[in-house]
Design a protein that fits this description.
34% of the residues lie in helices and 23% in strands. It is an alpha/beta fold. The termini are far apart.
Length: 323
C-alpha cells in the first residue's frame, strides 16, 4: 500500500481519498518519544479526532500526565487481549469502532513491547501482526496509526525488519513513504523451527477425532499442562483437526513435543489457506463456518500458521507450561 499524499505532508491532501495511514516512528530516548507521540495526538485533537493509545505502562503514565482531562483520548492495555498477537487485530477493531462511533475519525498510537517477546516464535508473530495491520484496515474507514519504536539499542537489523511492515515513516512531525515497505505478496514468512526430539506423531482421517484428542491430551498431561489449559487445548485441537479433514484433503498429521516450557501441537495437511487474516477477525453471529482458527487463537498462547499451495498448511499451537 502506498500513500496518495506527496512526501512530507502532515495529513491527507485536499481531495485525496482517505486511507489507513500506518506510520513507523523510530525514536531515541524519552524526550523523542514524548515529542513525536504528543505531536501526533495533538494534531488529532485539533482536527476533532478521537485517539486510542496502547503503549507500555510507564510511557502511558507519561502521556497521561500531559493529557490530563482530555476526553477524546482513551488509554487501553493490549495485555487484556492475552499473550497471543493473533488476537490484536480484533482488539484494535473493537477499540476503534467504539471510539469512532458515528464515523468520527480515529488515530491510534500502538507501541509493541518487543523486549517482552517470550521467544523467537512470539517475536516472529509480533512482526507478522504489524504487517497484517495494513491488510486488516486497508478498506476500513479512514484512520491513522503511529507505531513508536525504540531505536536506542541500535539494533539495526531489528529496525529494518520492523520497517518492512510500515508503508510510512514518521519524521519531524510529518510522514513520508517508506521505500523498505513490503507490499502484499512480498512479506517473507519466517520458517518454522524443526520439532524437537523426541516428538510424538499420529496420522488421522475421518473418524479419528477422538483418537487425536486422546493422543494430545496424554502428551499434554505428560508435559505438565494444567487441566484448565488441557480443556482449552482440546477444543482447539478438535477445530484444527476438523479443518484438515474438511478442507485439507481429508487427512492430516499431528505432532507434539515440549520445548522451553512450551507444549507444542502441530498439524499438517494438504490444504491451502488463501486468506492471511484467517482466524484474526471475529466471526459474525450469522457467519457459517470459519470459526476454527479464531477459536484456536483465543484458546492458545500462540498460534503459528504457514500455508502455501505447494507445501500445504501447518498450524502450530503453543501452550505455556506453568512452572
Amino acid at each position: 500500500m502506498s500513500t496518495t499524499q506527496p512526501p512530507g505532508t502532515p495529513g491527507p491532501a485536499a481531495g485525496a481519498e482517505a486511507r489507513f495511514r500506518h506510520e513507523l516512528y523510530p525514536y531515541r530516548g524519552q524526550d523523542q518519544f514524548m515529542a513525536g507521540t504528543l505531536g501526533f495526538i495533538r494534531e488529532a485533537l485539533e482536527a476533532d479526532e478521537a485517539v486510542v493509545v496502547a503503549v507500555p505502562a510507564a510511557k502511558a503514565s507519561l502521556l497521561r500526565g500531559e493529557l490530563t482531562g482530555e476526553p477524546a483520548v482513551t488509554f487501553v492495555d493490549t495485555a487484556t487481549a492475552g499473550p497471543n498477537p493473533g488476537r490484536l487485530v480484533a482488539a484494535w477493531t473493537a477499540w476503534l469502532e467504539e471510539r469512532g462511533e458515528g464515523g468520527r475519525p480515529v488515530r491510534g498510537v500502538g507501541e509493541t513491547a518487543w523486549s517482552q517477546a517470550r521467544n523467537a516464535a512470539h517475536l516472529s508473530e509480533l512482526r507478522h501482526h504489524e504487517w497484517l495491520l495494513n491488510q486488516a484496515f486497508a478498506r476500513s474507514s479512514a484512520w491513522s496509526m503511529l507505531c513508536p519504536y525504540d531505536a536506542a539499542d541500535e539494533d539495526e537489523a531489528a529496525l529494518r525488519y520492523v520497517s518492512r511492515c510500515h508503508p510510512l515513516i514518521h519524521e519531524d512531525g510529518r510522514y513520508v513513504p517508506n521505500g523498505s515497505f513490503l507490499e502484499d505478496g512480498q512479506y517473507p514468512f519466517e520458517l518454522l523451527s524443526a520439532p524437537c526430539d523426541p516428538y510424538q506423531e499420529l496420522s488421522y482421517a475421518h473418524g479419528d477425532l477422538a483418537a487425536v484428542r486422546s493422543k494430545v491430551a496424554q502428551c499434554a498431561s505428560d508435559a505438565g499442562v494444567s487441566q484448565e489449559q488441557q480443556s482449552k487445548l482440546a477444543v482447539a485441537v478438535t477445530e484444527i483437526a476438523t479443518n484438515s479433514i474438511v478442507h485439507g484433503g481429508g487427512r492430516g498429521t499431528v505432532r507434539t513435543w515440549i520445548q522451553d516450557s512450551v507444549f507444542l501441537c502441530e498439524f499438517r495437511d494438504a490444504g491451502y489457506i488463501t486468506d492471511p487474516m484467517a482466524g484474526r477477525i471475529r466471526p459474525s453471529a450469522r457467519q457459517l463456518g470459519g470459526r476454527g482458527l479464531w477459536l484456536a487463537h483465543q484458546l492458545c498462547d500462540l498460534v503459528e500458521i504457514r500455508s502455501t499451495p505447494e507445501q500445504g498448511t501447518t498450524v502450530r499451537l503453543h501452550t505455556d507450561v506453568q512452572a
